[in-house]
Amino acid sequence: MRPHLFHLVLFLLACPLLRGQQQLGIQDSAAGAVQQEQPPLARRHRQLLDSANACMRQDIGRSLDFVTRSMELLGDRSNRRELAQSLTTLGEIYQFHNQYDLAINSYREALETDRRLRTLLLLGRVYVLNEDFREAVDLLVPEEDRPGLAPDQRVELCETLGDAYSGLGQVNTAVSYYQLALTIADKNQNAPKVPDLNSKIAQAYDRADRTQEAEAYYGNSLQQARAQNPARALQESEKVADFYNKRSRFPEEIELRKQSLERLKELPQGVQAPEADSITAQGVSYKIGNAYLAQDKQEEAIPFLSRSIAEASSRGDLEVEKDATRRLSEVYRNRGDYKKALELYQNYVALVDTLYVRKEQELSRAARFSREMASSQNRISTLEQERQLSQSKYDLALAEQRLTQEINKRQRYIIYSLVFGLLLTALAAFFYYRSNRQKELANHLLALKGLRSQMNPHFIFNALNSVNNYIARNDERSANRYLSDFSLLMRTVLENSEKDFIPLSEEIELLELYLKLEHDRFPDKFEYRIEVDPEVDPEAYRIPPMLLQPYLENAVWHGLRYKEEKGFLKVAIRPLNAKAISITISDNGVGRKRSAALKTKNQQQQKSRGMGNIRKRIEILNQMYGDRITVSVYDLNPDGSGTRVVLNLRSE
Q: Lowest-pLDDT range, 161-175, 386-400, 514-528, 572-586?
């Protein structure tokens, strides 16, 4: 927020300077000198903004530096048009790097300084990107009757309004704006816009389930794109294929995607789609394989999934390689080739781990990006101080020159400056406090994501060993059943890994599946039961995913497993009051002290890390959302045998 604070200061300081010049009647000779200075400075200002635009894609730090220097160059001249140009360029930089809130603030400040149509259109577009559709409509609708709109500007205005109304769910209004833009673009031979607008009309009709109209416009967009170039045809072909996929018209989808594979061979390195998603051979092959599987044509799907894995591996596309490997593992499992399915699933698990490492690297790059942004903001803050100092010197010289004639005005100006300084200090303190709070929340989210993403390799290893044992005994039915349950559990864990909370009902289903797997592994060691009080509505409570599983694992592996006779594990969910419930996990195992004596040093460290992660997760979640979760652990019996874990959960 600090860069925008500086921009606001520039604008506010510019106004009193211009007003003071008018009131004091600066002599014509001085004004002439200023006029002689402006042309070279204006050219230099334009060059700095051009440099900022050139560096926008590769180096945001240098780009922000050029914008800062352009504002610094303005000095005491306070040219509103040039200041607005700098602010608009700053907004474009933020918009390109998906910092939409910062872009919105920059464009607003630019409009307050100098209201230009280009800035209005940019603000409308970024409102749509930020899903502030109502603000986009309120901003742009009054501009429809603006005189002097060029055809390209009117096309962009109508297209943005169509996007906004489409986001609001007003399909007919959106289509009317798209069609108006299409008419203008076609009339003025704006060829690149014609397939885009046909495609957007098709998408609007598709969202309204008006399939016939959507298909007609998709056909138009595809035909027009093919007439332009292979890259454009590839983009539209994939959109139409997605439409066929949504409508379960898989043969037509497959045909289009096979054509896309041929077009990709004509392009050096794929093509970048308008939505910024890379259209690649591995991605298209994966979609073809899925389309065949949707028709239960596993034999036809296998070559495309295999090709997708090979090409994704050669190009380092871990996301597609991971998804294609999982799907191919499921195909071989359904075909009864469990050895191949297991091998692929192990590859899938390894890819998930590799992808996790890559995500950590991306987080590191994001942190470096934040530091670069902070560095640029610090420089702008320094520039703000220098600007204030320069302004003070200017005011002092002006006051000395006009001291006799303007003493009363000077006194009022000093008072106003002091008040403004106090307000500015208070505003800076407020933004500094809010920025620190946002950084603290971001750090909590990163720490929580790291803890939540940790999986238990010990359980995965033992589960895969169990599958191997079933296969070794030629017990294919048990192996298939166990592998299916294990796959479902792992899929559920991965799907929930990005969520802070899930419904209690989903957590109960996950626990039931986990306990079933553990019971299949140790059928002679324990029985279990999950009891939910009828007064408890599982949908009314939300709980962090996999929060209870480590306690169940400790009960099985460190309590019941060491018991000579068959043990019992019970999970009971009872109401505490109208807004809280109690979740009790009790087992009649050997107890914590006896378990600690039986475990090796390595096992003790593993348990300590697991419980430490749970405590950290609960601590972070309670800091972020209030004290909603408390956990207590007791011995079940006076002799130290058995364990009871009581977790109290408060509703939102």
A: 386-400
Look up the pTM and report it. Answer: 0.51
DSSP-assigned letters across all residues of 509-523: HHHHHHHHHHHHH-T
pLDDT at residue 426 above 70?
Answer: yes
- The DSSP secondary structure of 14-48, one letter per residue, reads HHHHHHHHHHHT--HHHHHHHHHHHHHHHHHHHHH
Distance CA 129, CA 136 (A): 10
Helices 100-113 + 2-24 axis angle, to 10: 0
Is the confidence at residue 279, as pLDDT, over 70? yes
C-beta separation of 452 from 445 below 8 A: no
Greater confidence (468 vs 309) lies with 309
User: Across residues 622-635, what is the average pLDDT?
Assistant: 84
Q: Report how far residue 140's alpha carbon sits from residue 125's, in angstroms, rounded to the nearest whole number.
A: 10
459-650: CATH homologous superfamily?
A: Histidine kinase-like ATPase, C-terminal domain (3.30.565.10)
Q: Which of 575, 568, 563, 581 is nearest to 644 (CA)?
A: 568
Contact 180, 165 (CB under 8 A): no
Do the beta carbons of residue 549 and residue 511 sit within 8 Å? yes
CA distance 554 to 344: 30
Q: Would strands 567-577 and 542-543 be described as parallel, antiparallel, or unpaired?
A: unpaired
Buried b (16+ CB within 10 A) or exposed e, 76-87: ebbbbebbbbbb
Do 643 and 463 form a contact (C-beta atoms < 8 A)? Answer: no
Radius of gyration of the chain (CA): 32
Q: Which residues contact 288 (CB under 8 A, 6 or more apart)?
A: 254, 257, 258, 261, 301, 304
- For residues 214-237, one letter each, b for 16 or more C-beta atoms within 10 angstroms of the residue's C-beta and e for the rest, the string is bbebbebbbebbbeeebbbbbbbb
Beta bridge partner(s), residue 532? 573
